[in-house]
Amino acid sequence: MEEHIRYVIDGYTTQRVEDIKDGLRSHLTNLDDNVKIRKVGYKVSLSFRTPATANIMQCEDIDELLSKLGVMVTRIIVSRVVTYESATDTEAVSKRLNVNLLIAALSDGKTVERSEGIILSCKKRDGKWIRI
Amino acid sequence: MDKNLGKENNEKIYRFSQEGKELGISNNVLAFSLLSAIEEASNYFTELLLSKCGNPTLMRNISARIYNERVIKYELFLAIYYAMQNYDVETIIERARLLSSKWMNILNNNIDVKSEDLNEIGTYYTNYDTMEKAISELNKDESCGILNTLVQM
Q: What span, in angstroms and rounded, lies between the C-alpha atoms of A96 and B38?
């Protein structure tokens, strides 16, 4: 079982996804391969993680970093997550919802990432970052 | 959302889609209405989980991030459905992705909807009650766990 800090960031950009990804990697050297960026029109969502021992970046710092990469950030969610190998316990078909299986599917794969909860979340209002 | 009102509306939409076939209403219109019922069902499941979890930070972030994302709502609905069938993880992910993008395609590209596609959407919808019951049996930790993952999608 491994622990990480996961950052999920929403915003707007005119930049290319690959350029943002490269920029992110050159500014943050402690990222692993799990960097996801989804862009629809100008709307963008970024998701990446750092080791659990790394300092937690504050909203203002994240905003400053991403504005250098051409992303106007509107919302930030920081969570503590643990990852583990997916062991799907196959119980007989029941009417009960298999929560571990659902979380594994929503978290995208063989290695399950389960969130232990949000540790910081904020949004920009009138040019200022407020905790939500 | 008022639980009973939402459910009642959804039942009406489902009935409309069944009776509409007899009345000769086009498959596209019926598919649109069934898909909106599925979207509402997914909203309602999320509401149920939020009320069980009771975490206001999660609630605000889910509201802002998920409620505008139709594709995530479909994926959630389908992932719950397949998880209840105990499919393996890869199959759930693959099927949920495939079908939700098929449904998005129906909504966005105005393609001709075949009768079998319409029936397929209807079949998923008819599992609403079983899914609702399963979600209402989850405890606080399980509900928060699902929402914590959902908010990062």
A: 20
Q: What pLDDT is attached to residue A92?
A: 45
Locate all alpha helices (DSSP H) within chain A, ordered by sequence: 17-27, 59-68, 99-106
- Look at residue B22 in the predicted model and tell me its pLDDT: 82
Residue of A nearest to B74 (CA): A106
Q: For the residues of A35-60, what is the DSSP string, one character each?
A: -EEEEETTEEEEEEEEETTSPPPPHH
What residue segments make up the domains of chain B, in order of their start?
A: 3-150
A89 near B CB under 8 A: no
Topology of domain B3-150, per CATH? Four Helix Bundle (Hemerythrin (Met), subunit A) (1.20.120)
- Tell me how close the Cα of B23 comes to any Cα of chain A, in angstroms: 36
- For A72-99, what is the mean pLDDT? 78
- pLDDT per residue over A29-46, tens digit each? 999 988 999 999 999 999
The count of other CB atoms within 10 Å of the CB of residue B63 is: 12
pLDDT digits (tens, 9 = 90+) for B1-53: 455 666 777 788 888 888 888 888 899 999 999 999 999 999 999 999 999 99
Q: For chain B, where are the alpha helices, taking DSSP H only?
A: 3-23, 27-53, 56-66, 70-84, 89-109, 115-125, 128-136, 140-150
Q: Where are the domains of chain A?
A: 2-126
Whole-prediction pTM = 0.86
Residues of chain A neighbouring B76 (CB-CB closer than 8 A)? 106
Chain B interface mutation, best of A102, A108, A114, A115, highest count of B Cβ atoms under 10 Å: A102
Distances in whole angstroms, Cα of residue B91 to Cα of each of A5, A15, A109: 28, 34, 10
ipTM of the complex: 0.87
Q: Per DSSP, what are the bridge partners of residue A112?
A: A84
Contact status of A63 with chain B (Cβ, < 8 Å)? no
CA max distance for chain B: 47
